[in-house]
Amino acid sequence: MGFQSTITSAEGLREIYRDPSKPALAKQIDHLDQNCRAFIEHAPFVVLASTDDEGRCDVSPKGGPPGFVTVLDEHRLGIPDLSGNNRLDSMENLVRSAGIGLLFCIPGLDETLRVNGRAELTTDPDVLDACTVRDIRPRVVIGVNVEEAYIHCAKALRRAGLWEPEAWPDVSELPTVACMLRDHYAMPELDLAAVERRLEESYAKTTWLAGGEDVPA
User: What values do phi and psi take at 203, rounded to 5?
Assistant: First the structure.
């Protein structure tokens, strides 16, 4: 079941929304200047958006020590692939449809940096070397050819109170991740304590591995 009274054109949107201000448009640049570089060098977290060739979308979090994403030059950056669940949702999308959107976040800072462009998955040895993180040399780097970069305003994060502990919700009644997984697996017989233990064991073994690397015994 879909939605009613839908907007189906840009003209329909502009009947509701005013035109963007000149500063909102002027802030967009087509490269990574020294300000973008500094922001990325301080960011330990980036959200990556991709889409497949049929328009199905995916958003994936990527994290590491500040500066784990490498600015290769003013038109290129590299995101090292560190260990995940091997679903490869983002990377399979990117080999089908190169469009990519990035949102860089720095804890405590309400503004974010948006970078859009075209992605290529590379195994170029020089790029892998340049994107090494904590002595972990990735097997694959998501290379981004930058087309747009701009600072995004603080309103969304301020409305969320994202960096304000006093604004954080009470999660005491939230189902645990183990409970959610049990229900999504449709396996009510699973022992929740065992699920939580396996999760933590997996994190301990795989958090600081390159993507695709064999898990140590």
Answer: -60, -45
Task: Read off φ and ψ for residue 4, nearest 5 degrees.
Answer: -105, 165
Determine contact, residues 95/53, Cβ cutoff 8 Å. no
Beta-carbon contacts of residue 87 (< 8 Å; ≥ 6 apart): none
93 touches 50 (CB < 8 A): yes
The torsion defined by the Cα of 39, 40, 46 and 51, in degrees rounded to 10, comes to 110
In the sheet that holds 99-105, the strands lie side by side as: 57-63, 45-51, 99-105, 112-122, 141-152, 76-80, 70-73
What is the rounded CA–CA span in Å between residue 65 and residue 44? 5
Return the beta strands (E) in 129-203 as ranges: 141-152
Is this model's pTM higher than 0.85 or not? yes
Show Cβ contacts of residue 40 under 8 Å, excluding neighbours closer than 6 positions.
Answer: 32, 67, 69, 71, 77, 104, 113
Q: pLDDT tens digits, the chain, 217 residues: what are they?
A: 899 999 999 999 999 999 999 999 999 999 999 999 999 999 999 999 999 999 999 999 999 999 999 999 999 999 999 999 999 999 999 999 999 999 999 999 999 999 999 999 999 999 999 999 999 999 999 999 999 999 999 999 999 999 999 999 999 999 999 999 999 999 999 999 999 999 999 999 999 999 999 888 7
Q: Note whether 149 and 114 are within 8 A (CB).
A: yes
Instruction: Return the structure tokens found at 111.
Output: 């503004």
